[in-house]
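User: Please run a holo structure prediction.
Assistant: Happy to. Please share the sequence and the ligand.
User: Here you go; the ligand is 2-acetamido-2-deoxy-beta-D-glucopyranose.
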Amino acid sequence: MLRQWQRTWVLQFFILSATLNGKSLADKPETFIRSGPKLTWISDVVSEKLSNFRTQSQSNELCNQQIDSYEKSLRNLTLWALQMKEASAVSTPGMLVGQRFHLGHFDECVAIRHSKLAGRYCLAHLKVSPSPAMYPGFYTEPLKTVEPPPDSNAWETLKPNSNWFRMDRTDLFMALCVPGACSRHDVEETLNVTFANVTQEHGINVKIQMHDDLCTSSLDDEPMSYASKTLLCILVILSVLCLLATLYQLSTSNAIQETPKKDTLPRRIIMSFSIARNLGKVVPETNDDHMVILDLLKASAAFGVMFGHRFACMLFYMVFNVSFFESQVKKDLPLFMPTLVVESFFIVAGFLTFQSCYEPVRKQGLKVIPLMIFNRWLRLMPSFMMLVAITALLLPYLS
Ligand SMILES: *[C@@H]1O[C@H](CO)[C@@H](O)[C@H](O)[C@H]1NC(C)=O
Ligand SMILES: *[C@@H]1O[C@H](CO)[C@@H](O)[C@H](O)[C@H]1NC(C)=O
Ligand SMILES: *[C@@H]1O[C@H](CO)[C@@H](O)[C@H](O)[C@H]1NC(C)=O
């Protein structure tokens, strides 16, 4: 019974003191809110400088006017101005694990249209490093491990590294959404001024680099160039030719094998465009079945290489977790070893090349080799050039 009482008293005392404590803390809220000393870390400095970034041009008056209008519209929460602010990146989450791209929102930025004003999306490249006075260790010797120990200085993570696969973490790509009249040059100039005294203030060197191609607005959409129009015409003509030739072949050849038609020159030219005939030629009928497995291996390795590159372009560079990837490479997991796929491709391709070269070389000697190389070149170059032309001339217009 006594113990019960004691317990109750102890509990009551506890609650009372906690209430009193809380009350006294609530009376003095400033002791609750701790504002420690200002950090001089990259993300803080970049956030501070970019969150109120306004382009200011020496020569471009229209840019300054639009910035003025942006500033005013921002104060009364006009939608387009807030979209412009929101589409810019101001913080650098994940930069210690290798997140270098801080992309804001491209679509939101270039969609902004308001009377004569449009959004311009620029990606600025910031190269950061500590000044030698700030962290001399950065310049002495490279980091040997993939991840520095948790109790080391954060600059260790950004140090040059002796592992070939470890990505450089000193590059930052920050999205800036500015009024369309401001050019790449204006933005770069303002960034240079904005970050000019960061070295003295915070001991961090920031070098700015920008590229015209990474600064676009719907205002600079140009009409299609002549080269692109010509290429488009050629592609349309070729497609129509293929279609017509295929229809021609299908209509003239019967399922029942009749005596083959005379192969006149016009007919041969038309047939070379036929899709049905060319598809049949891609998969030749071969007698040596045991080599088919090599073809299959080569095809799957080629597919792996293509998939890897596509995947890398789509996801890796922009949003992937670099540290995770690096730790997996260290464990030599086959899935993460890009060299494995590429090497299988080359080894299998080597066997297959030997197989196709051996007979001709045995019969006609080494002099056929240049001819074979030329033959291969002739086979690949037209389609490769066409691919390059499409990428350079047509893809940019697909937005
Ligand atoms: C905000 O202010 C600007 C200029 O000061 C004015 O033109 C605009 O109509 C205002 N917009 C809103 C939504 O109040
Ligand atoms: C900004 O500074 C970089 C060097 O840090 C320089 O190469 C570039 O030309 C400068 N840009 C402008 C517009 O002044
Ligand atoms: C750096 O520049 C800002 C604004 O441009 C200024 O307010 C600040 O005083 C400068 N700091 C130093 C150390 O010069």
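Residues 292-319 form the longest helix (28 residues).
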